[in-house]
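Re: weekly structure request thread

Next one in the queue (121 aa):
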Amino acid sequence: MDDKTKIEACIQLYFDSLYESDAKKVRSSFHDAAMISGYLPDGLHEMNLDDFASFVSSQQPSPKENNDEILLEIISCDINGSTASVKVRDGYLGMIFVDTLSLLKVNDNWKIYTKLFHVES
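Done, posted below.
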């Protein structure tokens, strides 16, 4: 499997973690030292991986159980050696986000290292 396909699989796992409220999938798609930061209508939010995994798993019933519409679009993907930058548009909790994801290749696996998010609508 080439790097672009592996990155797309990582992004799909990340989205599945949100859609299914699955902390285990969050941890599988993110690097252990990952940081998640961005702006919601009430201001700046910053989380480490544990905080983010807990937040995702607390969304009950899950978006999947609610039959929420699936929205995941990879806007861009730039790969430079063992690093990559991916911009995605995704639907989550009634909002549309634009996420800028920085990934690292670790032991031939791609992991999200930072997530910057912006609420588009």
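Residues 71 and 91 are 5 Å apart (CA to CA). Residues 3-20 form the longest helix (18 residues).
Next request, please.
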